[in-house]
């Protein structure tokens, strides 16, 4: 009987529990639906799709619209089925056997997982005590391992830390010096005060990834993209499957970009609600980390985090148990929901901490 390759056989897939609960705050989804105007426009647009024909392989209209958002042309945009497929395509093009990817833990687990799936070795450094990017540790890893691809996540998942421009510029200089590629994952970028896309240039080995799942309220669509130099996008097009981005998704994403004002309003509301939630958590028997995203990391002090997670589930509230992630023993991560959902979470948490 055939078996998978050795490194796949040892892997544990990346999973987030899908449990039927009243309050689901574990996967950093937007709590609000997209604008009704978008839904109506999408419904009308379905009539114009030629379902018997393959979609536009280049996704020209969508990439042009995304490029306008970032002040670049479509040739600098690569779109795919969620930012995870974007990351996978990057690793198919620039990773692989005999190559190395660098991550600094704790961070988004799929950076290392996708790297390993593509046969890329992974070197793991550590973040500072406060989970910020430790530039001395970054230099140590880059000098020792000389990775082909280095990952930064800002705001970082699951800690919420935002890397400032000085930090990203410093990492970029180190990566450039070894002829590597820096991937800045900005899945939560709209919550941050700045974007690394301002550093992108044709001769700069930097790409920035984004997703429609969070701030655009389109997790169900599975749509993400990358902004980068034209030559890197061209290399990605070589390894991605043909017609990988279906017509429905292309239309949905293009229409969504006409509602940027509504997206920005949602971000503002979530940031305000995040402040309220952090303030309330500060009154409870938990340690809380500051966040620049739409989630908050916290650790119960007197009750085991895994036990608190189960007690919350028993009260029909689901958050993310991060205890198995590097350096996050006992930590839980809660997505910012609606005020009503957050109140139910806080009430359940108070009981769970008893």
Compute the separation of the termini in Å: 52 Å
Helix count, DSSP H or I runs of 4 or more residues: 12
According to CATH, the fold-level topology of the largest domain is: Aspartate Aminotransferase, domain 2
Strand content is: 15-25%
CATH class of the largest domain: Alpha Beta
CA-based shape: globular
> What would CATH call the homologous superfamily of the largest domain?
Type I PLP-dependent aspartate aminotransferase-like (Major domain)
List the domain count as a whole number: 2
Radius of gyration computed on alpha carbons? 20 Å
Instruction: Provide the residue-averaged pLDDT.
Output: 95
Largest sheet: spatial strand order: 2-8-7-6-5-3-4
Compute the number of strand runs: 13
- Helix- and strand-based class? alpha/beta
**Fraction of residues in helices?**
25-40%
Element string (H = helix, E = strand): HEHHEHEHEHEHEEEHHHEEHEEEH
Largest sheet entry: 7 strands, mixed
CATH architecture of the largest domain: 3-Layer(aba) Sandwich
User: Low-confidence runs (pLDDT<50, min 5 residues)?
Assistant: none
Question: Could you characterize the architecture of this molecule?
Answer:
- The protein is of the alpha/beta class.
- It folds into two domains: 6-34 and 261-352, Alpha-Beta Complex (Aspartate Aminotransferase, domain 1); 52-259, 3-Layer(aba) Sandwich (Aspartate Aminotransferase, domain 2).
- It has twelve helices and 13 strands.
- It has helices spanning 6-9, 36-45, 60-70, 82-94, 109-117, 135-145, 165-177, 230-239, 247-256, 260-281, 305-314, 339-352, and strands spanning 23-24, 77-80, 100-105, 121-126, 149-153, 181-185, 206-211, 224-227, 286-288, 295-300, 317-318, 320-321, 332-335.
- The strands form three sheets. A seven-stranded mixed sheet has the order 2-8-7-6-5-3-4, with helices on both faces.
- Helix 7 links the parallel strand 5 (149-153) and strand 6 (181-185).
- The chain starts with 5 loop residues before the first helix and ends with a helix.
- The mean pLDDT is 95.
